[in-house]
Amino acid sequence: MFDDQEKRSKDPDYVFCPAAHRKQILHLFTRHFCQHPLLPERLESQGWSPEKIYLLLQFCFDRGLREVWGYMWTSWYSPKMWDLWARSTNPNLLSRLRTTMNVENFWKQLKHENLHHVLNPRLDQLVWILIHEVVPSYFHRATHLDTTTRLGRSILLIPSLILAKREVR
Questions:
Q1: How many helices (H) and strands (E) does the chain have?
Q2: Domain coordinates of the chain in residue numbers?
Q3: Band of residue 74 on the pLDDT scale cut at 50, 70, 90
Q4: Engineered SS bond to 125: which of 6, 47, 121, 152, CB 3.0-4.6 Å?
Q5: Residue 89 DSSP code
């Protein structure tokens, strides 16, 4: 489990990466993994860049996670490792495996969430379900998952603020 030069910490309370930071690091990592110049929903997707590295570096150092940064750099974020895992390593090609996986997942969700009551839907019925049920749910999910708003668009209000705004009018 450990290399020859590694030693287990003497501190019984030592945690390599505290649970409070794991989800945030995974979110950053996943964002960097999925970015690609051919996918328009990502604004910064030009492959390995110092900005992406600095973002994770700053996150780790602000929280005192030096060991986590060392691991992420040597195993994932160094230029030679980046080429092995990141989707954006070739700006002209999109990984067929990852794209196929996304398409298969989409159809699986469509069958189980929207078409569970229909065995062989007619084409017009399928198009109606896609337009009126699937697309709105994807837009709804995307707005809740996307923490950054696009320039020129207002930030969505929470329901209580929407009611307050209506009362003011």
A1: 8, 0
A2: 19-89, 95-146
A3: confident
A4: 121
A5: G
